[in-house]
Design brief:
The complex is a heterodimer of chains A (116) and B (106). Chain A has 116 residues and is mainly β. Helices cover 0% and strands 53% of the residues of chain A. Chain B starts with a strand and ends with a strand. In chain B, a hairpin with a 6-residue loop joins strand 9 and strand 10. Chain B is 0% helix and 49% strand. Classes of the chains: A mainly beta (116), B mainly beta (106).
């Protein structure tokens, strides 16, 4: 059964940085694009970023462009989301999902709280 | 960016009712649309992809239709476990975008 698990969430001060990880298993990871989607507390879903199966193509949402970097390590079946210059409005649960291009398998989410 | 507008934002219905949620795109997206169900504290769950294809394991009371700019998600006979928020997502272009969500109360 496909498994996707996020880690690395926590509390960070405004202007700080954080790196999220997403480990996947039970499918041929190197064959699939992967994405991040976030959800602020009590609000809707916001697409954040996607990375192609080989890591050579990346796209970002408008609200995070220039502050966020997505990457992957196919030898570790893991993708990453580097969050920089964090703002209070970046507070959200960050989900990792396989992209086919719809999101067919999702992790349970990692909470990022930006607060002083 | 492609904007998606869902209607209604909130829907209250009874068990056994037929309900329909609409998702309108700001420009044509062919059939590149997915529908998700999300329950409180849980990750979204894929229901429908390519506008009308039912994801494996999803009950057949769920169906999707549409193409271009107007899409619908229909639940033919609402069940108590269908109480959730439903989101559409366009997959035609980057950045991917979601509708604002429709909360279904039973």
């Amino acid at each position: 059964q496909v498994h996707v698990v996020e880690s690395g969430g926590g509390v960070v001060q405004p202007g700080g940085s954080l790196r999220l990880s997403c480990a996947a298993s039970e499918f041929i990871f190197r064959n699939y694009a992967m994405q991040w989607v976030r959800q602020p507390p009590g609000k809707g879903l916001e697409w954040v970023a996607v990375i192609s199966s080989d890591g050579n193509s990346k796209h970002y949402g408008d609200s995070v462009k220039g502050r966020v970097t997505i990457s992957r390590d196919n030898s570790k079946n893991t993708i990453y989301l580097q969050l920089n210059s964090l703002r209070p409005e970046d507070t959200a649960v960050y989900y990792c999902a396989r992209e086919v291009p719809w999101g067919d398998y999702w992790g349970q989410g990692a909470l990022v709280t930006v607060s002083s | 960016d492609i904007q998606l507008t869902q209607s209604p934002s909130f829907l209250s219905a009874s068990v056994g009712d037929r309900v329909t949620i609409t998702c309108r795109a700001s420009q044509g997206i062919s059939s590149y649309l997915a529908w998700y169900q999300q329950k409180p504290g849980k990750a979204p769950k894929l229901l429908i992809f390519a506008a009308s294809t039912l994801q494996s394991g999803v009950p057949s009371r769920f169906s999707g239709s549409g193409s271009g700019t107007e899409f619908t998600l229909t639940v033919s006979s609402l069940q108590p476990e269908d109480s959730a928020t439903y989101f559409c997502q366009q997959l035609n272009d980057y950045p991917r975008t979601f509708g604002q969500g429709t909360k279904v109360e039973i």
